[in-house]
Write a structure and sequence with these properties.
Blueprint: E1 4-12, E2 15-21, H1 31-38, E3 48-54, E4 70-76, H2 86-98, E5 105-111, E6 114-120, E7 126-131, E8 140-144, E9 147-155, E10 159-164, E11 180-181, E12 191-199, E13 202-209, E14 213-215, H3 219-232, H4 237-240, E15 244-250, E16 253-259, E17 265-269, E18 272-280, H5 281-287
Parallel strand pairs: 2-3, 4-5, 10-12, 13-15
Antiparallel strand pairs: 1-2, 1-18, 3-4, 5-6, 6-7, 7-17, 8-9, 8-11, 9-10, 12-13, 13-14, 15-16, 16-17
The structure holds the ligand N[C@@H](CCC[C@H](N)C(=O)O)C(=O)O.
Ligand LBFN2T5F binds near residues 86 and 210.
EC number: 5.1.1.7
Subunit structure: Homodimer.
Pfam family, one: DAP_epimerase
């Protein structure tokens, strides 16, 4: 009988992830293996993969081990690496709490974007402290077909271009990454959010995620949208001295984002584990040949 690799499947506002627990970092998760696992027809299926590793066992996280026992080694569905995943880190914390690796309450999770604190209870929504946004200077444009829009460059650990549009349908089918300019704005590629207003402090978005395509949600994207909307609305907390809260509707649900006057951002939303099982290691080996 061939070796089995444990996995779980989870999602946050329908941004879905294959979860691979590997505390001692012994599983060879090459980009091809990640892409095979995330394949929705021939594999398990997911927008991305959460590789669950002890920080002390991962070269990229050893420095954070004193602060955070667990490292979210995040991979996009195409196998590429990303610095951060806002929905992923909430699902990651849900997993740790569910299997008893951590108690309910505030959990520190190491990510490539630094240590994040996630508040997780037995049931209900999960809140993550996302840290501060960076707003690189310079004009950015994104396009779909013949149409272009100015976009706000917002970095949430990973890169985002946020474009306010009149209608979310204008983003088209989003089968391919929306072109952007200037190329130097995003040397590593970008996640692109298209946003419409729904009311005061309330917006809706669609997203094309780098390394995954159009997804039903993006947590870092929703934070980038809230930050861009607050600047556009004259509600920058650093200027007003008060919190700015935005409800962000995504195709897969709703996220609530609050930015404080000190720039710290919190995101709240659901995080659900839906299944667990075993991967046939022989299938995986064949799939990546
Ligand atoms: N879905 C994520 C973001 C995942 C990474 C992104 N595709 C990138 O390449 O930066 C989220 O919830 O933040």
């Amino acid at each position: 009988m061939s070796t089995r690799i444990a996995f779980l499947k989870g999602h946050g506002t329908e941004n879905d992830f294959v979860i691979v627990p590997d505390p001692e970092n012994v599983i060879d998760l090459s980009p091809a293996a990640v892409a095979a696992l995330c394949d929705r027809r021939a594999g398990i299926g997911g927008d991305g993969l959460l590789h669950v590793v002890r920080s002390a066992a991962h070269p990229e996280a050893r420095d954070m081990a004193a602060e955070a026992e667990w490292f979210m080694d995040y991979r996009n569905g195409d196998g590429s690496v990303s610095e951060m995943c806002g929905n992923g880190v909430r699902v990651f914390a849900r997993y740790l709490q569910r299997v008893g690796h951590v108690a309910e309450g505030d959990i520190a999770v190491a990510t490539r974007g630094g240590v994040k604190t996630v508040h997780v209870a037995k049931d209900g929504d999960v809140t993550v402290g996302m840290g501060k946004a960076r707003l690189p200077e310079g004009d950015v444009t994104v396009s779909v077909g013949e149409r272009s829009w100015p976009a706000r460059n917002v970095n949430m650990g990973n890169p985002h271009a946020v474009a306010f549009v009149d209608d979310l349908a204008l983003a088209g089918d989003l089968y391919s990454p929306p072109p952007f300019s200037p190329p130097a704005a995003y040397p590593e590629g970008v996640n692109v959010e298209f946003v419409v207003d729904r009311g005061p402090g309330h917006v809706a978005m669609r997203v094309h995620e780098r390394g995954a395509g159009e997804t039903r949600s993006c947590g870092t994207g929703a934070c980038a949208v809230a930050v861009a909307a607050a600047r556009r609305d004259g509600a920058d907390p650093a200027v007003t001295g008060t919190h700015a809260t935005y409800t962000v509707d995504v195709p897969g649900g709703t996220l609530v984002i609050t930015e404080r006057p000190d720039g710290q951002i919190e995101m709240t939303g659901p995080a659900v584990i839906v299944a667990e099982g075993e991967i046939d290691a022989e299938w995986l080996e064949n799939a990546i040949r």
